[in-house]
DNA sequence: AAGTTTAAATAAACAATTTAATTCCGTACG
DNA sequence: CGTACGGAATTAAATTGTTTATTTAAACTT
């Protein structure tokens, strides 16, 4: 009369003990999973000299160099000021470089440096390895299902994230 | 020779365009979903006067009052220093209170104040609502699947999180 | 052509998190 | 006893992340 674990109906005990769980538990669950992921990723990333959050910038620029801070922020799902500061640090660390646009004076373009380029491969591997570790024991289909559900969640949340 | 989008096999176009996705995309996907969730939750929580991350402490203490910082950190999947700081702020905000243990001088016990207790219900509703918003359009079964997969991920990551 | 509005980048302030290092208390051991 | 070890909490330093406000340049309106 205390734990409040599986005393809803104990319907059939079919799978695990997910009986009483519902959407109300979503926020804590995803928060915690992301925290773990971030910590593990961060530790691995440390060997490359960068922090969790910076990896996306490198990988995005590897796909398309010369993006603006605003574009990077948008694509990485982060607010502009966050990107500005992260770019600043990464520039100081020598991974990338800021250059004015030339035609539009408001724009800044971000380019990978030689150092940044050389790190791309390892970063990509680290991120992928972290994902594989997390997905251990899951089938490809389950992983795709998870990705699809996460995408749905984000799609649902997007309207609530629009800037006033 | 450039986009690397859906040119794996283009098997059958069965569902969506999840063709080329795999575990390698897991880390970014969960990171971004969690970021969105955190922002939305944080904005709603703001009306109660607290920030994302503090809600768990309130809810946990509502379930079991008088936990130590270490226990709270453990149960909320956070490191001890994080909890110390969060508790400090929440104490200053008047939501909780620190009391020495009495029998063991090393321990500190954390108790909800009257204000904290009064906020429990609203916090719980806010967190649940945020989850419901995120899960809009998903069936109960899909939500349970998602929770199960998230739990698996965290289980997989746990060993890598053990303190050296 | 001049003034207003929008858009992009940045600056400042507040929080969460982590790792590494400190302090304090209790217990075990010599 | 007194000293060494271990655990719990805290402090310090670094970074991402958000919100709010400021600057600067382009675009649009009279």
From TrEMBL, chains A, B:
Organism: Xaviernesmea oryzae
Pfam families linked to this entry: MarR_2
Protein name: DNA-binding transcriptional regulator, MarR family
Signal sequence, start to end: none
Superkingdom field: Bacteria
Keywords, ordered alphabetically: DNA-binding, Transcription, Transcription regulation
Domain HTH marR-type, chain residue ranges per copy: 23-155
MF terms in GO: DNA binding; DNA-binding transcription factor activity
């Amino acid at each position: 009369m205390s734990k409040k674990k599986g005393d809803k109906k104990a319907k059939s005990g079919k799978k695990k003990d997910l009986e009483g769980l519902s959407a109300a538990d979503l926020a804590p669950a995803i928060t915690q999973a992301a925290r773990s992921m971030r910590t593990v990723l961060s530790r691995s990333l440390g060997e490359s000299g960068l922090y969790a959050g910076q990896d996306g910038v490198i990988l995005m620029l590897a796909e398309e160099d010369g993006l603006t801070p605003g574009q990077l922020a948008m694509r990485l799902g982060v607010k502009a000021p966050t990107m500005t500061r992260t770019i600043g640090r990464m520039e100081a660390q020598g991974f990338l470089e800021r250059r004015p646009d030339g035609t539009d004076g408001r724009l800044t373009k971000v380019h990978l440096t030689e150092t940044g380029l050389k790190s791309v491969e390892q970063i990509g591997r680290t991120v992928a390895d972290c994902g594989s570790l997390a997905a251990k024991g899951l089938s490809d289909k389950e992983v795709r299902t998870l990705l699809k559900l996460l995408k749905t969640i984000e799609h649902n949340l997007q309207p609530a994230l629009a800037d006033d």
